[in-house]
Amino acid sequence: MGADKYILDIYPYNPPLRYGHAVIPFCTDGGSEGSIFPTGPSSLSWLMAFSLRSTGRSSDDEVSPREKQQTNSKGSSNFCVKNIKQAEFGRREIEIAEQDMSALISLRKRAQGEKPLAGAKIVGCTHITAQTAVLIETLCALGAQCRWSACNIYSTQNEVAAALAEAGVAVFAWKGESEDDFWWCIDRCVNMDGWQANMILDDGGDLTHWVYKKYPNVFKKIRGIVEESVTGVHRLYQLSKAGKLCVPAMNVNDSVTKQKFDNLYCCRESILDGLKRTTDVMFGGKQVVVCGYGEVGKGCCAALKALGAIVNITEIDPICALQACMDGFRVVKLNEVIRQVDVVITCTGNKNVVTREHLDRMKNSCIVCNMGHSNTEIDVTSLRTPELTWERVRSQVDHVIWPDGKRVVLLAEGRLLNLSCSTVPTFVLSITATTQALALIELYNAPEGRYKQDVYLLPKKMDEYVASLHLPSFDAHLTELTDDQAKYLGLNKNGPFKPNYYRSDLCEGDKESIFWYHLRPLPAVAAWVVPLYCSGMWVWSYRAACRGRVMPSRWLGPWTSSLLR
Q1: Taking 50 as the threshold, does the pLDDT of residue 100 lie above it?
Q2: What is the edge-to-edge ordering of all strands in the sheet holding 366-370?
Q3: β-sheet bridge partners, residue 400
Q4: Which segments of 55-157 does DSSP mark as H helices, in order?
Q5: What backbone phi and psi angles, to 5 degrees, belong to 345?
Q6: In what order do the strands lie in the sheet with 249-251?
Q7: pLDDT tens-digit map of 384-396
Q8: For residue range 222-256, what is the model confidence (pLDDT) as tens digits?
Q9: What three-state secondary structure class fits 500?
Q10: Entry pTM
Q11: Which of 94, 107, 337, 354 is the right S-S partner for 378, CB 3.0 to 4.6 Å?
């Protein structure tokens, strides 16, 4: 507001045009009255300078941040970002994000006096965006020391990274890192003289893997790991199954607040944003195939269907496939439709979902992108061969050209589309960030021995608490159970209202467990259900249904318990 007033004071009659973050006056030294651009001898240099300013680029953009010597206003150089001079702009981005992350800010205000993370040394590897910056600064306000790197080489907001570095956070990240840069940044976060991490916050498992492989002594002294992605959680379960997980870990990905909100609602909105910004495609009547009908797939399909796209689904899970059918989608094999589709979207968390064979058979101008965390779903490596030509047409948009002239439009080189090519809704990320903060607080403050060397799910009481923090944003008013109603349902009036094995995207084991739970008061039905259940038709272990240990509410530490009362 102050800047706009200043501009109007200078140009009271002819307010300037705005382009990006640059201001274009209507009259310049080299131009005539009423002309937007100058026409004098220096016009070319003026336009080049303007172009660089308005696009956020500078003349030293080609210089790797690793080769730059930068310091913040406090004289610290314990960071590596694209351009520390962008810090002021990044601070504004963070302040905007804070407006829609009221629950996380509320947690910060409530807890910063007690400093529940005092002494915590958190090393993190997540997307570095304005929303993540609010989480990082919340952790710092609660007493933690943080060192941070990016989990995706294309999702970092350079100005936000600069703002964090200016605030004193040791952040090592910039948009467009190479693979070597990516691992170098992670190593710089972990490997520092006189500083040893005791907590890990990860998104994808790369940081956990690096510490486990390169710094085993550090890994053994970690007090807890918090992981938010399906890929990272899968890696943790592999370590646990092999008996190599020597620290307790929290599986945030399978919490209801993460699955139902971040995975579903976030992707429902951001898939279109990413595709529109990069391709300008119109979806009405387009043939689309979405690989995977989990929560991410459900969100993507709902958005595409609403715009008139004809959506096909590929699935390996018969229950998810049946859900897709009941939602009005056709379930196919990718090979059956690959020649006809206009858009291919992967969101499985698996590898080689779209292979070179599929890519060879695609029609001209087919758009290929990934909404899963990992960049392994599309076999991009197979496209880097001499007979294929790569042509960069926009930022994060490549045309891969076959010898016969066919082009496939590849977005973000097969990496996560929404955070690489667009932005995501701040409010949804507030839900996940609040869950991550509470998980870190709980693991850090838990007495020794409370958590074994295993993977745990957060109790539903904590999920419900996170959800309740966000309800005031909608002026929502919860109905309260009467004593008689609570007794009838066998519930505490204050929750939790769901059993610990409940998840939003119920897998087969979850559904059977809940079905069996509700059959208890029905002895007549149970008389014929019991033989079927005991015969093995519905055998499903509690551990498999929960994908790990469920942390009972009674285990919670005193600080976390006080929040949930």
Answers
A1: yes
A2: 330-331, 310-314, 287-291, 343-346, 366-370, 407-411, 397-401, 389-394
A3: 390, 408
A4: 87-99, 102-111, 130-141
A5: -125, 125
A6: 170-172, 145-150, 121-126, 199-202, 224-227, 249-251, 455-457, 549-550
A7: 999 999 999 999 9
A8: 999 999 988 899 999 999 999 999 999 999 988 88
A9: coil
A10: 0.75
A11: 354
Measured CA to CA, the distance from residue 548 to residue 85 in angstroms comes to: 45
- Backbone phi and psi for residue 18, each to the nearest 5 degrees, phi listed first: -110, 135
Q: HSE (CB half, 13 Å, CA atoms) of 23?
A: 13
User: Are 104 and 138 spatial neighbours (Cβ–Cβ below 8 Å)?
Assistant: yes
Strand partners, 202: 125, 227
d(CA 427, CA 124) in angstroms, rounded, equals 21
DSSP E strand boundaries for 104-241: 121-126, 145-150, 170-172, 199-202, 224-227
Dihedral pair phi/psi, residue 191, rounded to 5°: -95, 95
Pick from 517, 526, 455, 451: nearest CA to 489: 517
**Would the CA dihedral through 34, 40, 43, 46 be positive or negative?**
negative
Has residue 130 got a pLDDT over 80?
yes
Residue 10 structure tokens: 């200078």
Q: What percent of the chain clears pLDDT 90, i.e. is strictly above it?
A: 65
pLDDT in the model for residue 255: 85
Is 312 in contact with 288 (CB distance < 8 Å)? yes
Residue for token pair 């094999």: 333
Q: Name the packing angle between helices 158-166 and 130-141 (round to 10°).
A: 20
Q: How far is residue 186's CA from residue 209's CA, in Å, rounded to a whole number?
A: 11
Q: Which amino acid type is present at position 336? A: E
* pLDDT tens per residue across span 339-379: 999 999 999 989 999 999 999 999 999 999 999 877 899 99
- First-last CA distance in the chain: 42
Which of the residue ranges 157-161, 431-435, 510-514 would you say has the lowest mean pLDDT?
510-514
Q: How far is it, in rounded angstroms, from Cα 257 to Cα 504?
A: 9
Which parts of 173-283 are beta strand (E)?
199-202, 224-227, 249-251
Nearest to 298 by CA among 325, 335, 332: 325
Q: With beta carbons less than 8 A apart as the criterion, state whether 240 and 435 touch.
A: no
Non-local CB neighbours of 518 within 8 Å, separated by 6+ positions: none
**pLDDT at 551 exceeding the cut of 70:** no
CB–CB of 72/166 below 8 Å?
Answer: yes
User: Residue 404 class from Cβ within 10 Å (0-12 exposed, 13-18 middle, 19+ buried)?
Assistant: exposed
The rounded distance, in Å, linking the Cα atoms of 312 and 361 is 17
Phi/psi of residue 348, each to 5°? -110, -25
Structure token pair of residue 122: 């958190």
Rounded to an integer, the average pLDDT of 252-272 is 87
Chain centroid offset of residue 33 CA: 49
Whole-number Å distance between alpha carbons of 16 and 27? 9
